[in-house]
Amino acid sequence: MISYDSLIPNMIEFGLEYSSSYLYLDNRGKILRDIFENLKEIGRVDISEDKTSILFPEKKLAFYFSPKSIAIEMVASKDVKMLGEWADLIVSTVCRFLEISVFSRIVNRFQFVKPIDSSDDFSKIFAKNKLINIPEAVVNKLGNNVKKQAVAFTIDKDESFVSS
Q1: Is the dihedral angle over the CA atoms 97, 98, 102, 103 positive or is it negative?
Q2: What mean pLDDT comes out for the span 42-62?
């Protein structure tokens, strides 16, 4: 069995979507100034008409906001606490300046990797854990080995789910 402890976070993303904010163009600079003053760190900024991004390479963190969404991504880092603290500051700042109070979608993605030494090791782990059951008759008809096995899934909450 593959244990959670053996997995390494590869990417964690938190995002919010909302109706278009017409205050985006007028408030990008104010949002950036406020974020940098509160974080006490300067990141690499890229501003366009449809998206503003800040990259913090040392923190392995990227932040984007646009007239319709906010996203915060952390790559190859286990510092989930920092991600939460920065997300709290960034989201509240963007929402305050863009006057956003209702979200149409909230996204939280976690991508993990399992370190292995070779593709053969992966195939053995994959087969041992029976992550996908491919009938032997299918394998026999198509070839001798199953290669490039993968598992991907999405878990969605029921639309009627209400958190209290």
Answers
A1: negative
A2: 93
